[in-house]
UniProtKB/TrEMBL annotation:
<dbReference type="InterPro" id="IPR035959">
    <property type="entry name" value="RutC-like_sf"/>
</dbReference>
<dbReference type="Pfam" id="PF01042">
    <property type="entry name" value="Ribonuc_L-PSP"/>
</dbReference>
<protein>
    <submittedName>
        <fullName>RidA family protein</fullName>
    </submittedName>
</protein>
<comment type="similarity">
    <text>Belongs to the RutC family.</text>
</comment>
<dbReference type="InterPro" id="IPR006175">
    <property type="entry name" value="YjgF/YER057c/UK114"/>
</dbReference>
<dbReference type="GO" id="GO:0019239">
    <property type="term" value="F:deaminase activity"/>
</dbReference>
<dbReference type="InterPro" id="IPR006056">
    <property type="entry name" value="RidA"/>
</dbReference>
<dbReference type="GO" id="GO:0005829">
    <property type="term" value="C:cytosol"/>
</dbReference>
């Protein structure tokens, strides 16, 4: 088994003791991404802005590993209010346009930094 830590300079610094992602053989496990602007470390203020920024951060990590959204096999979404499900889906569908990955969406009581949205993925080469 080969294991490699992959971090991106274009994504915000992790807010805890974890890496952006870990490549194990042909599988990339990406830590949950919030809508944090990497230029200033601040969480975007609206659901739409947070969700879009989280996808931008995710894309930079995937790219650092030589992958893109087509390589994603599984996503897990965390939202703090199921009333935001449709809005999140609208943004999600701009990044995943066909051959959709498997997905879970979970409503949670709270996310780090009081974020409204978080996404984690598993991708494969």
């Amino acid at each position: 088994m080969s294991k490699k830590i992959i971090n991106s300079n274009n994504a915000p610094e992790p807010i805890g003791p974890y890496s952006h992602s870990v490549m194990v053989d042909q599988m990339l496990y990406v830590s949950g991404q919030l809508g944090i602007d990497p230029s200033n470390g601040q969480l975007k203020t609206t659901l739409e802005a947070q969700t879009t920024q989280a996808f931008i951060n995710l894309e930079s990590i995937l790219n650092e590993a030589g992958l893109d959204f087509k390589n994603v096999a599984k996503t897990t979404l965390f939202i703090t209010d199921m009333a935001n499900f449709a809005a999140v889906n609208n943004i999600y569908s701009t990044y995943f346009t066909s051959d959709y990955p498997a997905r879970s969406c979970v409503a949670v009581a709270q996310l780090p930094m009081d974020a409204l949205f978080e996404i984690e993925v598993i991708a494969t080469k």
